[in-house]
Amino acid sequence: MESVPISTTVDAVSDSVAMDSPPQPRRSADDPFTPEEIQALGLRQDRLPRHVAIIMDGNGRWAQARGFPRIEGHRRGVSTVRAIVEQCSRLQLDQLTLYCFSSENWKRPPLELKLLMQLLEQYLIEERAEIMRQNLRFAVIGRRGGLGEGVLREIARTSEISQDNTGMRLCLAVNYGSRGELADAARSIAEEVAAGRLTPDQVDEDVFASHLYTAGMSDPDLVIRTAGEMRVSNYLLWQISYAEFWVTERCWPEFSRDDLHQAFQDFAARDRRFGGLST
Known about the structure:
- The protein is of the alpha/beta class.
- Helices cover 43% and strands 12% of the residues.
- It has a domain at 36-177 and 219-265: Decaprenyl diphosphate synthase-like (Undecaprenyl pyrophosphate synthetase).
- The chain is built from 10 helices and 6 strands.
- It has a 6-stranded parallel beta sheet with strand order 3-4-2-1-5-6, sandwiched between helices.
- The termini are far apart.
- Mean pLDDT is 90; it is low at 1-21.
């Protein structure tokens, strides 16, 4: 009886298995992380924040420290936005809210304001394909007054085409100020009471929250602030009542995925009691 080399037999078996097994789908750089990949990043899937809010500070300071015009810092900051959005999406967070432009930012020089609005409009156009590719739900909170027609058009367009997506919600706070939001909510509630649609004793926390710009959104679990500032800066004052804070000295253009992972690791180690006691 003629002997068959072992290597030939193994190759034949391997070929048979390969033919019988369904082809494995190719994983792309946009696919959600597997539990094993999340663990390899030093993170715990069950301890990730579900909603992260970021105060993206230090663009201008980063640029000036390197001899660049301030607007270059904002341009570099857009690259950071792209990387952090993608990372949060792959980690399957429920929502990422970015403080892009505050109602107080109108005090800046006219040329910088013009360039910032142009940069925002450009971002909305150029990132639309990425938003759809990553299955993101796009939203904007803040007052629309004062924003240019081009920015408003692109906000509406991106919100419309992404409304049926099922992935992470990407929320931009644009022309946003929390005190203004609270005043707008109080005014809206007062109008409903005056019209007889609400009575004063019906106005509780749930009713008030339903009149905020963030109605229907969960409250942030974690607030990240860059550039070392220890201020809330009129950001989501109602919504962050029980959020954890994490501050880094890094300016936003140099904020990295590793910094994000460190924030999440520190968050996982926090003991969140919400006014109660540890169990």
